[in-house]
Design a protein that fits this description.
It contains seven helices and seven strands.
Length: 261
């Protein structure tokens, strides 16, 4: 009995040293979709050498999956790591983690409805994060956008903070700025986008950047701009929950075609 107890305590100590316990294996098809999402967002100009995509673990809501610290275009299934909601890797094996993994961890902690999250430095949204002009839905396909899109500004936090979301506290502050919405801009930095599925989060990230470009073009024309009103946006967003899969299927097929060339 004594030997068994010692062995059990030793096993627990080793697991604690290595990191939190895993939520278990993940269907390879789910990992393939996460890899594809990284590549699609690069192809669509939403991600470049920076930014990251995550999904909540399908077996445990207190875990999420995201690539090791790597340019999104280079991500493969072997690069996907599991994290707990404190941002701790389950099995790092010497692999580096994204400094801003707390964006994802704290959003998942605050929003049980969120199944996927994206952080992007898309150029098109930056002007709306630093000016008094608010980003708002301008076309039907961007009806999911909050009215207006909120802006997370670390200078407004007690004592101020840096632009990088590199601690759980800053991740929590960002999640509070996001609130119950789908997108939050980050002053002088980029945006965070969430969704109840990976496909919808990817759709929203791509069309948020498109909306920013369209709004800038409309403003440049001069005169007042007529945005979607609340009821129009609500009605259109219900349809987007279903028809966005048409875009997701197209992007996945295009990505698959590139892979076989």
């Amino acid at each position: 009995m004594m030997l068994a107890a010692v062995l059990l305590l030793s096993a627990v100590a080793v697991r604690a040293a290595d990191g939190p316990a895993s939520a278990g294996p993940v269907d390879p098809a789910i990992l393939a979709d996460l890899v594809a999402a990284n590549h699609i967002l690069v192809d669509q100009g939403v991600l470049d050498a920076f930014g990251h995509v995550s999904i909540r673990h399908p077996s445990n809501p207190d875990r999420f999956l995201m690539s090791r610290s790597l340019a999104p275009a280079l991500v493969t299934a072997d690069d996907i790591m599991e994290y707990d909601l404190d941002g701790n890797p389950v099995d790092a094996r010497g692999r580096a983690s994204f400094l801003e993994r707390f964006i994802h961890a704290e959003i998942y902690r605050a929003r049980p409805d969120v199944r996927a999250a994206i952080h992007s430095h898309a150029n098109a949204v930056i002007p709306f994060s630093v000016s008094t002009v608010k980003l708002r839905p301008i076309a039907l396909v961007e009806a999911f956008l909050p009215q207006p899109v909120p802006v997370y500004d670390p200078q407004e936090l007690p004592g101020g903070a840096g632009l990088l979301v590199s601690t759980p506290e800053l991740g929590h502050a960002l999640s509070q700025s996001l609130g119950e919405g789908s997108v939050v801009l980050m002053r002088g930095h980029g945006m965070a986008v969430v969704g109840p599925s990976l496909s919808l989060a990817v759709y929203r990230a791509i069309y948020t950047a498109i909306d920013a470009n369209l709004e800038a073009e409309a403003l440049a024309l001069g005169g007042p701009v007529k945005f979607l009103d609340t009821q129009e946006a609500h009605d259109a967003d219900k349809a987007l929950d279903q028809i966005h899969l048409r875009a997701w299927d197209l992007w996945k097929r295009q990505e698959a075609a590139k892979a076989v060339k």
